[in-house]
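sanity check this fold:
=====
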Amino acid sequence: MSTVDEDGYSSRCDLCDTEVIQSMTELLLRGLATASVDSTTGDIFKSASSVAVSVNSELANYLLVRTEALLHESVGGHEDYSDQLMKASTRPTEFLSDLIDDFVASKRNMMSHVSGFLSSESRLNRIKDFMQKMEMENVWTQDVRKATAETILESIDMKCIFHCPERFVEQDKLVDHRSQCKFRVVNCKNDGCSASFSAIHIEEHDSICPFKTLPCHQLCEQHVMRCEMDRHCATVCPMKLINCPFYHVGCETAFPQGNLDNHCSKLLQTHMLYVLQATTRQNATVNDMNQRLQLLEKAQSLNEMSGALDVRSLTLIIKEQEAKIKKLERDIKTQEAKMKKLENEFRSRNA
């Protein structure tokens, strides 16, 4: 600033937390898109684009008026407003979100309420699409939204948690201060990272930056980027524990893979002994399997012979049953012949 304030200071730092400002800037654009869409739902004569400019002016004015009212009531000693201001001071994005929700609710037309449009997926898609359209057409430029967000933040940030309140009489002192201010914008120094943020977040970002180079978690001599650490430890790290190549023949030693050559050279004779023992066991197993195979072949032969005997026995039994059936058939026919003879004799007597 170039003008002198009442207290004699001519220049203010006014740097703000870039992350908070970015969040508030996005909230402003979404709020404008939502209010524009909801206020024109079902209206065949209006579209979100046709009302965006006027809604934009209303929204910006609404937010500033509500913020000033909160400050005025708080200064006036109203306890409820003082509590609200203290909460807004520590949670500015939440405060702004609540104000925008109130404004959006006042812009919803009857069709939005009646149709249940407010909870539909179509509504959310329209809001998202309209946000992208406004950004392309610069309906509410990011610089203007940023200025609005900074004005609101500076007004409610009573504890100066998110902006710098320092003031200076001399311009050169302001310049020196801004070069060291905790809210100055800095770039991440890790190679490959393009992130920028307020200096107050340097340690926070450094603790999660995927491009930060760190000592290997498995304590090898290499330094690896955080995003590559898991792959390094699981694959190429010389301190990765591996099993001995002769594990399957008896050596159950595990060691860092960088020690593989040393381990194998020191235990060469032991490994050869393991191989010899395994070969012996394998030969014994082969002999055992051959013996089992022979036994199985004999058992199969016996089963076949037994099966043949069973077939012969079954054939004899069937033949015996067939003979019995034939004998019964003959006996039945003999009895029938006797019955007919008796019937004929009975009829001849009665005649």
Summary: The longest helix spans residues 268-350. Residues 244-351 form one domain.
